[in-house]
């Protein structure tokens, strides 16, 4: 049951009712068969979260104990999480699947990346207030959408590493719009694009404001480059092998001369490519335990697709907001 009984506890009710509220892009919780409840967005610690997620966010903040060897992938929704989960998993496990026989049995061929690298608040702590994580072998690969300032204390205080991936805000916005339209109940129809744009530009989106999410990690990465690796989806698309080598170095598992010679980097990129992953049976017809269909995580996987949906004016509105909010940070999209 993905929505635990204590969602309705007086404590949680008190917290929820004290938080500013906005209409969610999706009017109900995740489509898990068990419990689908109405959703609103709530402003918690400066960021907007779906109301049904808050209990899990708080449980994760209170209970998650980071290990120094943990690697945590952090993103805002729709920035390429699925791709990077696959790449991180493949990087971490490359020794196990190096020969061609093992390659055919690679877990990424039969399991969705979200099952192999689970989210803390959107999966593990949604299921259970204090989940048993002892089954994870070290080093643990986990993921979160939480903003830097809302991370569990132990994540910030321990020596664990964070890989942060962001994406051009216009493409992120268009990807979000498509995705949330899939999550909306049929009878509600699509969320009109101008309405979605207005929410996005006011910062009202899952784990938004988008700019504050990015800025938090950008700052952390410039202050602690050995702890936080800051990556962009567009750079991954433009030169994936350079970025994957950067990732491997950051994880403390650089590619050996032999791996570089025998095409390990290219092999990982081929396996994790949009075309390969999206064509796999598991990603065409499978579902996550939260009720989400695996195929929803693979749409186009391109840079610049926003121009096919947004007018120049709409684009300028996002550009204007981003310019204002990122001013002085040194960060540009
Ligand atoms: P689009 O909607 O623009 O196609 P997330 O994984 O954070 O939910 O992000 C989803 C976005 O990443 C979608 O973008 C999706 O198509 C894209 N994506 C998924 N797998 C990918 C891959 N292997 N390579 C590149 N992009 C991928």
Backbone structural class: alpha/beta
Percent of residues in helical segments? 40-55%
Low-confidence runs (pLDDT<50, min 5 residues)?
A: 1-7
Bound molecules: adenosine-3'-5'-diphosphate
Record the strand order, biggest sheet: 5-4-6-7
Report how far apart the termini are. Answer: 40 Å
Order of helices and strands: HEEEHEHHHHEHEHHHEHHHHHHH
Number of strands: 7
Q: What is the mean predicted local confidence, pLDDT? A: 94
Shape: globular
Q: Determine Rg (CA atoms, Å).
A: 19 Å
Helix tally?
17
Major sheet characteristics: 4 strands, parallel
As a percent range, the share of strand residues is 5-15%
EC number: 2.8.2.-
InterPro entries: P-loop_NTPase (IPR027417), Sulfotransferase_dom (IPR000863)
Organism: Eucalyptus globulus
Pfam families: Sulfotransfer_1
What does this structure look like?
With 333 residues, the protein is of the alpha/beta class. It is 44% helix and 12% strand. It is built from 17 helices and 7 strands. The chain has helices at residues 10-18, 54-63, 81-92, 100-103, 113-116, 120-127, 153-157, 169-183, 193-201, 210-223, 233-238, 240-250, 257-261, 264-271, 274-279, 281-285, 312-326; strands at residues 21-28, 38-44, 47-50, 71-75, 141-144, 161-166, 228-232. A 4-stranded parallel sheet has the order 5-4-6-7, sandwiched between helices. Helix 2 packs across helix 6 (120-127) and helix 9 packs parallel to helix 17. The longest helix is centred in the middle third of the chain and has 15 residues, at 169-183. The chain starts with 9 loop residues before the first helix and ends in a 7-residue tail after the last helix. Mean pLDDT is 94; it is low at 1-7. Bound molecules: adenosine-3'-5'-diphosphate. One of its GO terms (molecular function) is transferase activity. It comes from Eucalyptus globulus. Keywords: Transferase. Residues 68-330 form the Sulfotransferase domain. Its EC number is 2.8.2.-.
């Amino acid at each position: 049951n993905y929505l635990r009984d204590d969602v309705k506890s007086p404590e949680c009710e008190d917290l929820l009712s004290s938080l500013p509220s906005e209409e969610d892009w999706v009017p109900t919780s995740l489509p898990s068969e068990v419990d689908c409840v109405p959703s609103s967005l709530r402003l918690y610690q400066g960021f907007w979260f779906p109301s049904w997620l808050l209990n899990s966010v708080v449980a994760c903040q209170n209970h998650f104990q980071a290990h120094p060897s943990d690697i945590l992938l952090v993103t805002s929704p729709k920035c390429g999480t699925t791709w990077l989960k696959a790449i991180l998993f493949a990087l971490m496990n490359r020794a196990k699947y190096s020969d061609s026989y093992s390659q055919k049995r690679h877990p990424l061929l039969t399991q969705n990346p979200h099952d192999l690298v689970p989210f803390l608040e959107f999966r593990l702590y949604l299921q259970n207030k204090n989940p048993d994580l002892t089954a994870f072998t070290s080093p643990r690969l986990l993921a979160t959408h939480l903003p830097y300032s809302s991370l569990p204390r132990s994540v910030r205080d321990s020596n664990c590493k964070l890989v942060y991936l962001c994406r051009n805000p216009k493409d992120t916005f268009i990807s979000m719009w498509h995705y949330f339209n899939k999550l909306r109940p049929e009878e509600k129809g699509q969320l009109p694009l101008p309405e979605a744009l207005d929410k996005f530009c006011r910062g009202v989106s899952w784990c938004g404001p988008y700019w504050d999410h990015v800025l938090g990690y950008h700052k952390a990465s410039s202050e602690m480059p050995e702890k936080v690796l800051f990556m962009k989806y567009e750079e991954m698309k433009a030169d994936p092998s350079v970025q994957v080598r950067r990732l491997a170095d950051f994880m403390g598992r650089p590619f050996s001369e032999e791996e570089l010679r025998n095409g390990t980097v290219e092999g990982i990129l081929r396996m994790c490519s949009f075309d390969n992953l999206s064509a796999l049976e598991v990603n065409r017809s499978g579902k996550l335990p939260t009720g989400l269909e695996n195929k929803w995580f693979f749409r186009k996987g391109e840079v610049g697709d926003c121009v096919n949906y947004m007018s120049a004016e709409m684009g300028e509105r996002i550009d204007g907001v981003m310019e204002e909010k990122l001013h002085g940070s040194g960060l540009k999209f």
